[in-house]
Amino acid sequence: MLPGLVEVHTDNLERHVTPRPKVTFPMLGAVQAHDAEVAAAGITTVLDAIGVGDPYGDGFRSRDQSALLEVLDTLEESGLLRADHLIHVRCELPAPNARELFAPFARHRRLRLISLMDHTPGQRQWTDIEHARIYYTGKKGWSDQQFEDEVRIAPLRQAEHAQPHRAWFTEFANTHGVALATHDDTTVAHVDEAHALGASMSEFPTTLAAARRAKALGLCTVAGAPNVIRGGSHSGNVSAMALAREGVLDALSSDYVPGSLLQSAWRLTQEGGFSLPEAMSVVSRNPARAVGLSDRGEIAAGLRGDLIRVKVLGDHPVVREGWVRGRRVV
User: Fold this and answer.
1) Which tens digits make up the pLDDT trace of 15-60?
2) Helix 188-197 with 208-216: angle, nearest 10 deg
3) FRET partner for 182 with CA separation of 20 to 30 A, picked from 3, 203, 220, 330?
4) The model's pTM
5) Which domains does the chain have, with CATH numbers?
C-alpha cells in the first residue's frame, strides 16, 4: 500500500483530444479516457497541463479551453471522475495570443500552477537546433523549409512578446496565490531569474548546473519520468538519473507517459540509490507540496485517503487498486 501519485505536468489529455494531426475527438470522451488512464497508472491527483499560446494557430494550444473546464466540472458533479483534476496552465511567452487563451482559467478554482515557457529554437530545451528540427518535422510534420522559416521568425516573436508576457503572468500568479514554475532552465542566470520572479518550481532543467542552482535556492526541481525510464532526455539534455545521483532531483512528472511515473520511482530504488519511501516522495509528497497541496502525498492521520495498492511483477510495479478520498476508483 502506497500513497497515491501526484502528477504536476502531463499533457496526456492533449493526446486524447488530438490523437493525430488535424484530428479532434469530443472533449467529454477524451477527458474520460485520460482520467481512466491516469487513475490506472496510480495517479490520484493530476494537474492537467494545458498549453496556452500557439503562434501557428493550428493545434490544441491555439483553442479556447472553456469546454474543457465545463466538462471537468460536469463529470466531477456527476461523480464520474476517478482522479482529482486540477489545472496547470503552460504559458508560451512568445505567442501573441497567450493572454487571450489564458482568460478562461484566470478565476477558475482548479487553477493551481502557471509555468512560463519559451520554446524559441536555439535556447533552453532547443539549444541544439537539430534536436528541434527532428521534433518539429516529426511531431508536427513540418518540411525542412517550414522549420527554417520558423528558426528565422521565432526570435522576432520572442523579442516582441516574451518579456511583457513574463511580467504579466508572474504578476497574476503572485497576486492570486497560484504556484509559479519556470520551464527548461538551462543556465544559472535562468534559475536566478526564476527565483527573483517568485517561482517555487524549476521544471525540466536542461543542465546539471541549472538543477544545482535551483536546489540551492530552494526551488523544487522536476524532471521527466520518461527520461528516467529511457535512460536519458529525448531532446539531448541532462539525464534525470544524473540529477537523482547528484541529490538535486525533488520531483518527477510523467510528462507524456502516465504509466512512467510509478515505474520511475522503482527505477530510482534500483539505480539511483533511493529507498522506497524516498522514491515515493519524489512522485507524491514533494510535487504536492510544491504546488501548495498539504493534504495529500503521504499516508498519515488527518490527510486524504488517496492510496494505491501495488503488486510487483519481477521489478515492475503494477497498480491493482486505487482510492481517492477513500473512494475506490481502480
Assistant:
1) 999 998 788 999 999 999 999 999 999 999 999 999 998 766 667 7
2) 30
3) 3
4) 0.90
5) 2-328 (3.20.20.140)
Q: pLDDT at position 119, please?
A: 75
d(CA 54, CA 262): 31
Most confident of 1-5, 94-98, 141-145, 234-238: 1-5
Contact 172, 115 (CB under 8 A): no
Task: Give the C-alpha separation, 149 to 252, whole Å.
Answer: 35
Q: Do β-strands 220-224 and 201-203 pair in parallel, antiparallel, or remain unpaired?
A: parallel
For residue 255, give every residue at least 6 positions away whose Cβ sits within 8 Å of its Cβ, in sequence order, or none.
9, 10, 11, 224, 225, 226
